[in-house]
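pasting for ref. prot 1 ->
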Amino acid sequence: MNAPTEMNCLAYRRAKLADPQRISAEARAHEAGCDACRLFARRVDAQEARIARVLDVPVPEGLDERILLAVSGRRQMPWRAWAMAASVVLSIGLGVSVWQGHGRYDAPRFAIEHVMHEPESFTTARLADPDQFRAVLAHFGGELTHSLGHVRYMKLCPGPEGTGWHVVLDTDKGMVSLFLIPGDKVHVPQTGTMQGYRALAEPAGRGHIAIVAENDAAVAAMAAAVRDNVRWKI
C-alpha cells in the first residue's frame, strides 16, 4: 500500500483560508513542521480576531436612518437613489421589522400588524425631529405645509415593494402611526379593523400612506390633517 501523500503548502493555505478555526489533523501536522505556514496561520488568525472585534462593536440605535437622513440633505438626490440606499442599509440587518406575507396585499391589515409587532414605537423617542420628518416626506413626494402633530418616533421599515417609514405622531386625538410606503399596491382608499386598531390606507406620494390608531376619530383626524397640510408633488 502506498503511503499517503503529505499536504503541501498550497493545500494547507487553501484549507486555512476556507475555515481558519477548523483545519484538519493533516493540516495541523503540516503547520507544525513548516515555519512559513505557521507565520501564515498567525497572520490569518490575527485578521480573524480583528474582524471579530469590529463585529462586536454595538451599532448605535437609529444609525441606518441617520445615514439616510444625512444624505437626504442633498437636494439633487433622486428618489430611486434614496430607495436604493435604504435597501442597502436594510440588507445588512440593522434592526428592521419584518412584514409577513399573506398572499394578497391587505394594506390596512399589514399596517396594523406592523404596529402590533413594534410596540416600542409608542414608548420610545426615536429620531423625533420635525425637520427630519419633513425630509422624509419630501423624498416621498410630499411638502409639509403645517404640522401633523408632535413627532415621537421614526423608523425605516421594509414594505411590500421597497423601504418605507413608520412614523408615530402625538396628536390631540392620541398617538397615531403614519406609514409612508412606496410602490403601486394601493389605488383606492381601504379601511380595516383588527385587535382593537383601526387603519386607513390610501394612495399618496410615491406609493400610499397607512394610518393606524386605536379609534376611528384619530384615524379620520390624521387623514384630514394629511389632506389639508401635505402637498403631494406627484
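and prot 2 ->
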Amino acid sequence: MKKRVGILLVFALLFIGFLANWTYSYYQGLEEAYIPIHEVNDIPVIPSEKKVFERSGYALDYLNMPVDENHQRTLDTYYNNRAYSGAPPSIPHPVKEKLGMGGNVCLQCHQNGGFVEKFNAYAPVTPHPEMINCKQCHVEQQTQSTFVATNFYKKPAPEVGVNNALPGSPPAIPHQLQMRENCLSCHAGPAAVKELWFDHPERVNCRQCHVPKAQEVKNVELFVRANTNLK
C-alpha cells in the first residue's frame, strides 16, 4: 500500500512540475521579445553636396558662359583673401555698419553673382545663402586699424592638380564639404578661380566621381552666437 502511495506521489509531483513549467513558459511566450542594445560608435556623417542640386538650374548657363579672362580671379588672390587655408574669406570692400549683418543686403550680389561695375569684378557666389548673418564669420579688411602683425603660422593651401589617385582619374576633394556644399559656387561661373574652374558644371552629382581626400569627417553642429548685451 505504501509503495503505491509513493508511486502516485511521485507522479503527482511530476505532473505539478510539468503544469508549473508549462504555465510559466506560456506566459513568458505572451511577453514581447527583448533584444539587448549594444552601444556602438557613431558612424561619421559625410556632409552632402545637396546645395549643388539646388543650384543645378544654373549649370547650363555656366557651361555656355564665355570666360572673361580680364576679370577672372586667380588662386593667389583667392588665398590671400583668407587668414589661412579653409578660413572664411574676408570682405575686400567697405560695408556700412547698419547694413552689414547679412540678410538680403549681401545676397543682392552674392546669391547669384554677376559683374559689379563699382568694384570692376565678379561677385563670388556664396555656397550657403541661408546663413544670413554674414559678418559672424566674414570680417572687413581693416588691417591698418583693427589687426596687428603676428607670427601666426599660415598653413599652406592644398596644391592644385596633384591629388589624383591615378593618372587620368578624377581629382580628389582636398577640403571638407561642410559649409562648402555648393561646388558650383567656387568651381563654375564667371567668379570662379581659373585654377579651380572645371568644364563640366552640368554634371551636378560631383561626388559620383570626386571623393573627399580627408578620411576623418565629423558632423559639427552649426555655431550660433547668443544675442547678449555686453556692458
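The chain is about 25% helix and 0% strand.
The CA atoms of residues 59 and 184 lie 8 Å apart.
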